[in-house]
Amino acid sequence: MENKLCYYFENGIEIEFSTGAYGEGVTKTINLHNNFEMLIVEKGEMICSLDGTDYRVKAGEAAFISPLQLHGFKVLNDSTVRRVTFSENIVLTLSNAIKQKKAENPIFKPKEDDLDYFLSQIKSLFGTEEYSTNRISPSATRIKVKGLLYIIESSLLSQAKLVPYLNSKNAVIDVVHFISQNYLSDISLRDAAERIGYNHQYLSRELNKTLGVSFSNILNQYRMNHAYALLQDTSLPINQIAFESGFKSIRNFNHVCAEMFGKSPKEVRIDSDIG
After folding, report:
1. Which CATH architecture has domain 17-164?
2. Fewer beta carbons within 10 Å, N or C terminal of the chain?
3. Whole-prediction pTM
């Protein structure tokens, strides 16, 4: 498969959950994103490319993709593939279990009964067309999706050998990964450059050339996504959320929130289930 980097960085809240079913001949070009992803072969076979290696995945098997892993897939003849992507906020236990790690072999085989139940329920809830949302609602559906994901991910954790994440040797991927692991701390582009072994001016050029954004843009997105989850799911004071999300001032927190959502943190909270 063509190893071309395709990364869509949006100045907004990340997609919390998306899914779709794909038939014969569908190809997804090499890309990366901030969420977990599962590709499940319902019928036939697919070729899944992950970090430069092609895997042939058969019916009843699944490919597991960690955040910021280069991946793509091609559905083979007379085959059907179900794709599910989801943020760490839905699967915090899984996220904590594999933090700074990845599956040495990304292909696993869920229990047949578990897989059948998972696929039938996802189809019942979301159909077969492309579906995505910033936040699953109502709450009952969100909780059900959490449970469905953990049913399948338990098979992954029981079968997979987890190995430490190593630098990808791609400057853009490595700096975004550094941000994803350290955004709650006081970090800078120079810190990233020193940690991953690049010149900071080179990193700045590569980020703008490849993603069209700066280090601070990406850093603010990670911090605001973290804050968004706290605003939606907790009753913590807004000032506390700002500082716990890595912002150094309430003024900056309010500015970034308005820039990303067109709303104040208080308005974001009012839109949540907890009021």
Report:
1. Sandwich (2.60)
2. C
3. 0.83
Per-domain residue ranges of the chain: 17-164, 171-270
**Given the structure tokens 């309010």, which residue do they identify?**
254
Q: Which of 66, 68, 22, 67 is nearest to 47 (CA)?
A: 22
Contact (Cβ atoms closer than 8 angstroms) between residue 14 and residue 36: no
User: Has domain 171-270 been given CATH number 1.10.10.60?
Assistant: yes
Residue pLDDT, tens place only, 120-153:
999 999 999 999 998 898 989 999 999 999 999 9
- The runs of H, that is alpha helices, within the chain are 92-97, 112-126, 139-159, 171-182, 189-196, 200-210, 215-233, 238-244, 250-261, 265-270
Q: Long-range contacts: 91-100, Cβ < 8 Å, 24+?
A: 91/36, 91/146, 91/149, 91/150, 91/153, 93/150, 94/36, 94/149, 94/150, 94/153, 94/157, 95/36, 97/157, 97/162, 98/66, 98/157, 98/162, 99/181, 100/164, 100/165, 100/181
Distance of CA 149 to the CA centre of its chain: 14
